[in-house]
């Protein structure tokens, strides 16, 4: 089965921190969900599940049970940035509905359907007035911190391998 | 106005439910006139019966253009549910539809308006799914054809009353033609294009 959506520049949809639009509540919530999604997509299913276990979860049901599919990854090439199809990537998706009516969607790279379901559940909880703050505090914030630490570590490790080529240009003058 | 928050859910267990429903429909097609039950249950929106909903979740996807009769297409519950769970495009032109969903058999358009397939590709015809009142009581019909040992008897109360007379056009069209699936709640009967039906009265 092929998922109907095409995600353009999936890689660039990475971490969005502090991109909260303060103008309207709608935008705020959208930005909050986007930020949560950016963290959850990079977390392990086990980590999310472990943190959700500490919360008293409301009743919920699978609106769309987890399923796997393919999305076409598109890149840009050449000076004018013409789009081309790079290849297809496996994606899992799910949708969860809380008893109070909020619907959450989860999309993640790979075949881990359970992770997609957990992300959808978190997305629904983030929208809920009663659970939003608790999920943000107990699930997403710690995961975000972990993610930042991992990123900084990787950046530091990469930076340590930096080579200075200043000797190459000497001798001309 | 229906929001996603109010949509009935799809199958609880997608793969096994779809396999089981597919098996029921396949058996119904292989043994025309026999009543098959659809076991897995999904939420059914609006005027859609639960058997129809299960068939929709099993057979429809973005490659199968879908034609809805007036009563189905009026219901935003049904169209949104189909869009969310199956992704099948709903078309106005019944002659390009892979499937047609009919909840009000009385308003069934002339069958010639559906896709009849071509001689090269007779499979590219519309499968018409009609919701009927009952497949266990009503007028008796005698069915003959491949998949039936002799004669099969089907008691059914269906609309339109002259459905099987209209389906006689399949005799002249073969190998082209229309396949019909009758659904009453969770019961399914298929009338493939090879089947000849004689009304016996009640």
Give the structure's gist in a few sentences.
Chain A is an alpha+beta fold and 173 residues long. In chain A, 40% of the residues lie in helices and 24% in strands.
Summarize the structure in words:
The complex is a heterodimer of chains A (173) and B (202). Chain A is an alpha+beta fold and 173 residues long. Chain A has one domain (10-169). Helix content of chain A is 40%, strand content 24%. Chain A contains 4 helices and 3 strands; from the N terminus they run ααβββαα. Chain A has a 3-stranded antiparallel beta sheet with strand order 1-2-3. In chain A, a hairpin with a 4-residue loop joins strand 1 (60-77) and strand 2 (82-98). The N and C termini of chain A lie far apart (64 Å). Chain B is of the alpha/beta class and 202 residues long. Chain B has a single domain (10-106, 113-201), classed as Rossmann fold. In chain B, 25% of the residues lie in helices and 24% in strands. Chain B contains 6 helices and 9 strands; from the N terminus they run H-E-H-E-H-H-E-E-E-E-H-H-E-E-E. Chain B has helices at residues 14-30, 50-59, 70-74, 76-85, 163-166, 169-173, and strands spanning 36-37, 66-68, 99-102, 127-131, 134-144, 152-157, 179-184, 187-191, 196-201. Chain B has a 6-stranded mixed beta sheet with strand order 1-8-7-4-3-2. A 3-stranded antiparallel beta sheet of chain B has the order 6-5-9, with no helix packed on it. The N and C termini of chain B lie far apart (43 Å). The mean pLDDT of chain B is 92. Classes of the chains: A alpha+beta (173), B alpha/beta (202).
């Amino acid at each position: 089965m092929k998922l109907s959506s095409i995600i353009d520049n999936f890689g660039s949809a990475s971490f969005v921190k502090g991109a909260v639009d303060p103008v309207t509540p709608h935008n705020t919530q959208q930005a909050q969900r986007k930020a949560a999604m950016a963290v959850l997509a990079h977390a392990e299913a086990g980590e999310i599940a472990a943190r959700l276990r500490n919360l008293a979860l409301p009743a919920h049901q699978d609106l769309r049970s987890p399923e796997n599919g393919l999305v076409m990854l598109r890149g840009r090439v050449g000076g004018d940035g013409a789009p081309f199809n790079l290849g297809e990537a496996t994606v899992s998706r799910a949708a969860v509905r809380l008893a109070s009516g909020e619907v959450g969607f989860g999309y993640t790279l790979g075949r881990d359907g359970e992770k997609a379901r957990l992300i959808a559940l978190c997305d629904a909880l983030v929208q809920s007035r009663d659970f939003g703050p608790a999920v943000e505090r107990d699930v997403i914030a710690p995961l975000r911190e972990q993610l930042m630490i991992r990123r900084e570590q990787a950046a530091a490790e990469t930076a340590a391998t930096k080579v200075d080529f200043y000797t190459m240009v000497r001798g001309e003058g | 106005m229906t929001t996603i928050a109010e949509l009935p859910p799809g199958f609880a267990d997608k793969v096994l439910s779809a396999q089981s429903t597919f098996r029921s429909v396949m058996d119904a097609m292989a043994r025309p006139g026999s009543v098959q039950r659809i076991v897995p249950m999904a939420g059914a929106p609006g005027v859609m019966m639960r058997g129809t909903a299960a068939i929709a979740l099993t057979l429809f996807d973005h490659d199968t253009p879908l034609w809805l009769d007036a009563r189905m297409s009026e219901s935003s519950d049904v169209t949104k549910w189909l869009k969310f769970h199956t992704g099948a495009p709903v078309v106005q032109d019944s002659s390009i539809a892979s499937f047609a969903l009919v909840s009000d058999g009385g308003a069934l358009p002339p069958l010639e308006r559906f896709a009849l397939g071509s001689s090269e590709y007779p499979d590219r015809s519309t499968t018409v799914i009609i919701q009927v009142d009952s497949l266990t009581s009503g007028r008796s019909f005698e069915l003959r054809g491949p998949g039936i040992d002799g004669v099969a008897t089907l008691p059914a109360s269906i609309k339109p009353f002259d459905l099987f007379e209209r389906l006689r056009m399949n005799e002249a069209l073969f190998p082209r033609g229309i396949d019909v699936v009758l659904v009453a709640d969770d019961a399914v009967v298929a009338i493939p294009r090879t089947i000849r039906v004689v009304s016996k009265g009640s």
